TrEMBL record, chains A, B:
Domain of life: Bacteria
Keyword DNA-binding in record: yes
Region (Disordered), start-end ranges: 1-30
Keyword Cell membrane: no
Protein name in UniProt: TetR family transcriptional regulator
Length: 211, 211
């Protein structure tokens, strides 16, 4: 929707919608554009090299608007991380959405479903890099995983020390991601997903279900 | 040994030792000092922020001497990485130096022996960070691990796909290190090493020995 130009009469008021002032971006669209820009900036440049100003520029808005919707750099990083992790947040549903015997394999397959696709993988790796090189970013990531992922994973794990076991399982997949996609060490980098799932599935199964 | 001062007569020649010119550092000591400085610089600043000039300054030598002994930045990074990984390079001996049944547990305990000590852990994490954020650093690390670690680990693994299995085992430990020491997520961050070894030992055992 284009804002009214100076030479035209003001756009007619639409019922239920506040009048639009010239130049004021449509609020929900602006917020989305800022969040998308934030995700892209953090994914491309990492936490350290991303700024509110850079995000604002990429979104085509004033930096004050970024502050208005999201607050501090850490707060917008948190929002971007939640967006980047959105596909991963479905992991508990995958793990718990089937027979108990298949939980480990489902977890492994689910993670590869996210990582084998560069569109979902690259921003995730960028977030991991940021967490590795910046304490504030690590704290944001930690908080997000605890609130949005870990709780939902463990609530249906009927084993002792479920948080510990969920983290053992997650750590295994994270380590595989590092060798396969980041350090790119062979043969892990090129191994068929099926081969990895065949080895790792039983491991995750034991962690998640066997007391 | 202090170099001769201008007002003194030159130091007497010592049999078997080349004459020392004023200001010329004792060669082996200088090389060691440079390597130690390189390790510290890379460990503190990471790959990107470390330079030949910075290393030379920390070692108290001319940058030309750094080039003389080590070559390019990647070559001195490689030498520093080998120094930083020296404790880890004993892993194959630990794994293979005992009964087959204890291999997995020995590997897990050995890794914790290196990581639980901040003196050995911190430079390792710095190298991992560098590899994560810099492609050249990742290539150096990859080459060093392949040449110095992987080969010796697999030569005594009598299973199918020994390199793949060794990397599965290593990836598990790397992922645990990331959760425990870098992202510092609880309960993994504070779990007793014994608890982790109890869960992970059997996993590594299966990867390393069971076909």
């Amino acid at each position: 929707m284009t804002p009214a130009l100076p030479s035209q009469s003001p756009a007619p008021r639409r019922r239920g919608r506040p009048p639009r002032t010239e130049g004021a971006p449509d609020a929900p669209a602006a917020r989305d554009r800022i969040l998308t820009a934030a995700r892209n900036e953090f994914a491309e440049r990492g936490y350290d090299k991303t700024s509110i100003r850079g995000i604002a520029k990429a979104a085509g808005v004033d930096p004050a608007l970024v502050h208005h919707y999201f607050g501090t750099k850490d707060q917008i990083f948190g929002a971007a991380v939640e967006l980047i992790f959105a596909p991963t947040l479905a992991a508990p549903d995958a793990v718990h959405g089937g027979s108990r015997e298949g939980a480990g394999e489902r977890m492994a397959r689910f993670m590869f479903g996210v990582w084998e696709n560069p569109v979902t993988r690259l921003p995730l790796l960028a977030v991991m890099r940021s967490a590795l090189t910046n304490e504030a970013a690590a704290a944001v990531l930690r908080g997000m995983i605890e609130r949005r992922l870990l709780l939902r994973m463990v609530v249906e794990l009927h084993v002792s020390n479920p948080e510990f076991r969920a983290q053992l399982a997650a750590s295994h997949m994270i380590g595989i991601a590092m060798l396969r996609y980041v350090i790119r060490m062979e043969p892990m980098a090129s191994a068929p997903v099926e081969d990895i799932v065949a080895m790792v599935g039983p491991t995750l199964q034991r962690y998640l279900t066997e007391d």
